[in-house]
């Protein structure tokens, strides 16, 4: 009997927690609905006298409003992707792992399982990344979300304002939501400003619209500043192909920690989120390449196979066909050095090279 009451109480608490999680979303929705009413009716319909100006304001506003709402909807209701079933432990492996009391044996068991999977990142002590709650080998850039109670592919963070975990499946939509939010607030502030001044100095009559116009400018500016800071931060992350979690803790590869391990250059970093089809960049339609389980790395050779670190090879520049001679060697302290001579099709020796640490 007591057990039944405890289960009912636990279920009730979980339900309340899920309902409370929607409060921030409800606040945003109410603010947006009020802003729509204040701008369309109190500002454009009542305050703006010029018909042409009124039509232009409403046309541009509704275009931004549609994209703003569309991206917000996609950020909320696009479910985060979980790892593929092959990353989960089998029933037999799970039993052997849980019954084994020696940590070194458990570590070796995870290593043996991970050899069959495309995972190249490790924990800080070099062990295979394993989730003891989901019982799976974590794919690269995957993390467990305590709020969603599951592992999320390429997890960035859990956002209470969309009540969803931001990761591989919806990071593009989240960035678009921030961008259109900034444009939405900026457009409202710039078009409302002249009428704010007119109400302030008394050029327009003191009606009900005055309160809405004055408050609309204040709210738009307040949200614009806060959203611009957040959007700028995520643009910086995008330019370096990092997640929020990776910005605080650098991913660890077989060769050691590397804060720029996934940095492929600005263009390729951008394409990792928005894809190569330019027609889809502004639309909240999924276009991110890959399946979220593995990602191209800056030093793929060192990450995939440390034995290749002592080999010499050529790399071709796809843009102009020139060759790069790359020589990688092992230093006594275990760090790797890479020699990259100046790109020159007539290069005949290492005298033009420069040495840089990888």
UniProtKB/TrEMBL annotation:
It comes from the Eukaryota. It is an enzyme of class 2 (transferase). It catalyses: L-cysteinyl-[protein] + hexadecanoyl-CoA = S-hexadecanoyl-L-cysteinyl-[protein] + CoA. One of its GO terms (cellular component) is Golgi apparatus. Residues 327-341, 349-358 have a biased composition (Polar residues). GO terms for biological process: protein localization to membrane; protein targeting to Golgi apparatus. One of its GO terms (molecular function) is protein-cysteine S-palmitoyltransferase activity. The DHHC domain is required for palmitoyltransferase activity. This is Palmitoyltransferase. It comes from Sarcophilus harrisii (Tasmanian devil).
